[in-house]
Amino acid sequence: MKAFLSSKLFTILLFLAIPASAYFINVEVQSYLGRRAFEGTGLKSHSLQESMSRAKAEGKQILVDVSAIWCGTCRKLDNEVFAKDEVKKVIDKKYIFTRLEYESAEGEAFLKKHNVKSFPTLWLLDENGTTIKRLKVTFKPAEFIRQLD
Questions:
Q1: How far is the C-alpha of 38 from the C-alpha of 79, rounded, in Å?
Q2: Counting beta carbons within 10 angstroms of the beta carbon of residue 78, is it exposed (0 to 12), middle (13 to 18) or buried (19 or more)?
Q3: Strands, DSSP E only, in the chain?
Q4: For the chain, how far is it from start to end, CA to CA, in angstroms?
Q5: Fold of the domain built from segment(s) 40-148
Q6: Residues 6+ apart with CB under 8 A from 93
Q7: In the chain, where the domains are located
Q8: What are the C-alpha distances in Å from 136 to residues 25, 40, 64, 105?
Q9: In what order do the strands lie in the sheet containing 95-101?
Q10: Is the dihedral of CA 84, 64, 105, 47 positive or negative?
Q11: What's the predicted TM-score (pTM) here?
Q12: What is the pLDDT of residue 30?
């Protein structure tokens, strides 16, 4: 009887461990891919506070990208829009870029204040952090640039 219970307990633990392991492996893989995608953009992200200071000093607006490192749609935006030279030129010329990870304290505060419900979400803010407009997420660089102009 003891061997039977031990075997049954092992089976139950195994059935719990396999999905849990798969979940955590998936999270790590998705996070790794997200970090690589953002690095591939070549954009430098600043904290929101630093962006407001720089926007005042440089006379620029702030482009905020609310994202999640594991988000596949966010990676697509990075790869298909933010990584394009023509997009980076416009951003560098007119905007201070801020990537807010939703799981960070700064990201959570922004989510709450602006009622963000999905990722990615894009905003243009003035130097005081006041909303100018919310941008439509598009994977077409030319369409994205038109929204910035």
A1: 8
A2: buried
A3: 61-67, 95-101, 121-125, 131-135
A4: 75
A5: Glutaredoxin (3.40.30)
A6: none
A7: 40-148
A8: 32, 22, 12, 24
A9: 95-101, 61-67, 121-125, 131-135
A10: positive
A11: 0.84
A12: 83
Q: How many CB atoms lie within 10 A of CB 148?
A: 16
Length in residues, the chain: 149
Q: CA 145, CA 17: separation in Å to the nearest integer?
A: 47
pLDDT at 44 over 90: yes
Q: Which residues contact 143 (CB under 8 A, 6 or more apart)?
A: none
pLDDT tens, residue by residue, 92-136: 999 999 999 988 999 999 989 988 888 899 999 999 999 999 999
Cβ neighbours of 10 (radius 10 Å)? 10
H and E: helices and strands count for the chain? 6, 4
* Per-residue tokens: 23: 């979940």
Output the pLDDT for position 4. 53
Check if the beta carbon of residue 94 is closer than 8 Å to that of residue 61: yes
Q: Which amino acid makes up residue 90? A: V
